[in-house]
Structures are given as structure tokens and as C-alpha cells.
Amino acid sequence: FNSLLPGVRRRVLRMAAERMGASRRGLSAVRTAEVLGFMEQAQTGRAMEFAPGLELGRDYEAYVIRPSGVPQAFDLPLAVPGRTPLHDLSLIAETELLCAGGVGSTGNYLWQAVFDYATITGPLRFRSRRPGDRMQPAGMGGRSRKLQDLFTDLKMPQAKRDRVPVLASGEDILWVPGIRTDGRFLPGTGTQTVLQVTIRKTA
């Protein structure tokens, strides 16, 4: 983008603003110049007001236009067994309790995970991330890692991180769907009851 001629960059910005619902009046010549200057030097994670109700953010190699403001935190109790709508995310969580020998070919993948139910000591909830969140990702020899560091390793845009559901029991994080499970809660040779959690899109 920065290699384009200035006039072309200005037109692209105005077109992007209009596609996001902003009016031409909302992106003045002065603001356009400020945005172009921002894009030439902004570092990952920085953002600025783009137009009324919109902000422009730098996410690694990309610039993202998104609604301004902090995403609303969520914290929802998980029905076990049952179905729990995650309304704001257009997702639904489905849970089942299974005998360990009846799990068959099901197992862990990006949007489904199984756990040793006896290792879960408190109510389960799907919530948004919190400062200081940590987990012990399976396959890492019990090493603890910050959730923030896992997101950084994946180069996940800042705006998306607040919309990732986190399956937690008290202070323990069991699973971040699409990313990792915590090895402490996975079924083993002594497991009798398995909790299977599946995330599905509703729209």
C-alpha cells in the first residue's frame, strides 16, 4: 500500500471508509494525511481513529479497519451436558459426558476437545481472556505459558484476541478453541468419564 502514489492511497482510504459505513465528510483531507503518515511508521499493535466510529490498526504485516472501542468482555456458564450459545461470537458449545471406552475415534482437534472429567474441580465457563492468563499446553512437558505469548506466536491480530473464547474452571484454562488444550486435563489410562466439548458456528 505504501508503495502506491499518494493520490491512489487517498482514494483507497476513502473507498475503504465508505465500505465500512463512513461518509466522505468523516474522512477530511487533514485526517487522510494523518492516517497516511500513521501507516508509514506505525508498529504492530498501534491504532488511531480513522473516521467517526472506526479505527485503523496495524496487525503485523496488515492494516485493519474496524469499529472503534473496546470489545465487551463475556463470561458464560457452560452447560454439562448440554448446549451453550455464545451469542456475540455466533458460536455454540455442545458438551457430552462419555465413558472412556466409548469415545472411539473422537478426540482433540481445532474445534473439539476431550478431557478427563474427574480432573475438573469447579464449574466450567467460556469467557474472554484476562490479564495474566496462563496454561500448560499439551505436548510442552508441563511448561506454563502466557496466553498472550501463544497469541503472539500465532501473529493473531489484537482485535481478534478479545473475541477468542477461553474454556476455564476457576483460574485454570482447559482449552482455547482453535489453538491449544492444557495437558493437565486430558484423558489418560485411568480416565473413567470423558467430557467432550465441540464448538460449532451458528451463522
Q: Name the strands of the widest sheet in spatial order.
A: 4-8-11-12-13
Order of helices and strands: HHEEEEEEEEEEHHEEEE
Residue share in helices? 10-25%
Mean pLDDT: 88
CA-CA gap between termini: 32 Å
Shape: elongated
Give the biggest sheet: 5 strands, antiparallel
Number of helices: 4
Strand proportion: 25-35%
Structural class: alpha+beta
Rg is 21 Å
Give the beta-strand count: 14
Low-confidence stretches: none
Question: What layout of secondary structure does this protein have?
Answer:
Layout: H1 6-19, H2 29-41, E1 47-51, E2 54-59, E3 62-67, E4 75-77, E5 82-86, E6 91-99, E7 112-116, E8 124-127, E9 134-135, E10 145-146, H3 147-153, H4 158-161, E11 166-169, E12 172-176, E13 180-181, E14 193-201
